[in-house]
Amino acid sequence: MADSALMHTYGRLPVAFASGKGVWLTDTEGKQYLDGISGIAVCGLGHAHPAVTEALCQQAGTLVHTSNLYQIPHQEAAGQKLTQLAGMDRVFFCNSGAEANEGAIKLGRLHGHQKGIDKPQILVMENAFHGRTLATLTATGNRKVQAGFEPLVSGFIRCAYNDLEAVKNILQSRQDVAAILVEPIQGEGGLQSASEEFLTGLRQLCDEHQLLLMLDEVQTGNGRTGHYFAYQAYDWKPDVLTTAKGLGNGFPIGAVMAQGQAAELFQPGHHGSTYGGTPLGSAVVKAVLETLERDNLCQQAARIGERMQARIQKHLGGLDALVSLRGRGLMLGIELDRPCAELVGLALEAGLLINVTAGSVVRLLPPLIISESEADQLVDQLCELIKDWLNTPPTS
Ligand SMILES: *Cc1c(COP(=O)(O)O)cnc(C)c1O
Fold first, then answer.
1. How much is the pLDDT for 3?
2. Is 4 within the bounds of a domain?
């Protein structure tokens, strides 16, 4: 579309959707698609979920926005529910994942200054993705995201993911680290999971050195991995926890949470947002979280995720081209031995929405409400497509 008024930030696929219901989307020509990506881990409750529609319509007709100058009972209620499910003490609502991570970075720096560090550093990981604002693109471990936007923000140190020795070495050689920011599973970076030893080791190192452990659960949160938050698979807590994507089921909202001393760091004047936690957004968050809880969607994500992994293994396990199956719950990656971005267009033609990340990893993030038979259909069709594609000699 040469005459589009939009900036050229996206390479868009040649399809537009007109409506959705559950795990199904219908395009403007009337063709149906099975949604294996949920708007990138956003629509965990699927499309047009009645609880979300109701909260949106009811609140839109009552009160959309006032301002954080005033009390917002819906924000209090959403915050109560979210911190309870997340095991945190306090929350600040913002409008996106990047903004939530900006809040975390500010908490990390405040903590550092309180410890008397002049220029506090935040430790971040290779292949990380934390967003597109200047601080979060600096924290991101991908040159493609950063190139052209230098000078980058100072105050970040990078180290290898899943390499506890590397982290120990950095903490031994410098005294200015204030916090560690890490994803439990690297969603954009190819569905690589942090090992339990790595995360638990980071928790211990943060305790020893009095650093904040800050988890970016923008993508892994809100039931996606089979827990409300991925860290809940372990028996410790982070100091700071960020989330967004699944929190509003498509309504743009993010959250930075904290527990213990970290929850008391922000004081009046430190941080703010015009839109964060409006009555409308808060009503939606409450509806989403209550639905996740009422319908046991964490357990469902865990169960269907295991079923899908086993079924993918059955279809593709014997192939040399399969390098690994990655992920947890309904955050799954099929790593192939070659670049496979082409599969996205082929799947689209076949009526499946999938994504490829890190060049050679097919990523599946279906709605948490997906049924067993829909999950089987997604896996069967996708695996047939992958096999056909692997067997077709490259054209030209
Ligand atoms: C998507 C994502 C972000 C950025 O969220 P936006 O809402 O696009 O700003 C940050 N961190 C992780 C892990 C993500 O997956």
1. 81
2. no
Active site residue 314: no
Backbone φ and ψ of 365, nearest 5°:
-140, 60
Mean pLDDT of the chain: 97
Q: Which of 93, 198, 216, 229 is catalytic?
A: 216
CA distance 158 to 274: 32
Closest Cα to residue 356, out of 9, 37, 131, 32? 37
Q: Residue 131's domain spans which residues?
A: 50-294
What is the CATH classification number for the domain harbouring 133?
A: 3.40.640.10
- Whether residue 395 is predicted with pLDDT greater than 70 in this model: the reply is no
Residues 22 and 114 occupy one common structural domain: no
| Catalytic-residue membership of 129 | yes
Given 92, 93, 129, 198, the catalytic residue: 129
pLDDT at 254: 98
Q: Distance (Å, rounded) from C-alpha 368 to C-alpha 180?
A: 30
Tokens of 82: 């979210």
Residue 396, pLDDT > 60, answer no
Q: Is the pTM of this model over 0.70?
A: yes
**One domain for residues 243 and 369:** no
Q: Is 149 a catalytic residue?
A: no
| pLDDT at residue 393 in the model | 73
Q: Total structural domains in the chain?
A: 2
Distance separating alpha carbons of residues 220 and 332, to the nearest angstrom: 11
251 assigned to some structural domain: yes
> Is residue 5 in some structural domain?
no
CATH (domain of 381): 3.90.1150.10
The Cα 113–Cα 235 span in angstroms is: 29
Which residue, among 321, 320, 315, 323, has the nearest Cα to 378 in the 3D structure?
315
- In angstroms, the Cα distances linking 308 to 80, 120, 195, 283 are 34, 43, 21, 33
Mean pLDDT calculated for residue range 254-272:
98
> Does residue 284 register a pLDDT over 90?
yes
Tell me the per-residue pLDDT of 187-221, one tens digit each, with 9 for 90 and over.
Answer: 999 999 999 999 999 999 999 999 999 999 999 99
* Å from CA of 51 to ligand 1 middle: 25
One domain, residues 187 and 148? yes
